[in-house]
Design brief:
Length: about 150
């Protein structure tokens, strides 16, 4: 992997550093930190943790009392401009970067993605929990996907 652009501290340096299609500074430094951690025998990333030390999907519990199904269908859907669980026309589009927003007093990061199951694609709003090693779908989403 190529070393990211370096220069004097400026907005121009930041722009050049993050705009090169050949170099991803986040990936570069992540790999660098991971290698240092591996060399020290440490865990590197929650997604790389040995399953023996990581809680299974049935052992990890998350409660978001401030983001309910009703809020996803109303307030959040209105703010995103996408009806929650609506059919998605652009189901085959693969995205590399998405846009979301921060919601509510607890500052929940919410990002809309298209979820496809069999031949049905729907808009699902994901709440990003950076501490969770798993991705979950709500019971309401699962019911939609199992039809």
């Amino acid at each position: 992997m190529q070393l990211p652009y370096t220069g004097s501290p400026s907005y121009e340096t930041i722009a050049r550093r993050f705009s090169s299609p050949q170099v991803d500074p986040q990936a570069y430094f992540t790999l660098k930190q991971q290698q240092k951690g591996k060399d020290r025998g440490e865990f590197v990333d929650i997604h790389d943790v040995d399953p023996e030390y990581s809680p299974g999907p049935n052992e990890y519990d998350v409660l978001f009392s401030d983001v309910t199904h009703a809020k996803l269908q109303s307030t959040i859907a209105e703010q995103l401009g996408i009806p929650y669980l609506s059919e998605a026309a652009d189901a085959k589009e693969v995205i590399q970067v998405s846009t979301g927003y921060i919601y509510g007093l607890h500052k929940r990061t919410i990002v809309p993605f298209v979820v496809t199951y069999r031949k049905e694609a729907r808009w699902v709003f994901f709440i990003v929990d950076s501490g969770s090693p798993w991705t979950y779908l709500s019971a309401q989403v699962s019911v939609y996907q199992m039809r």
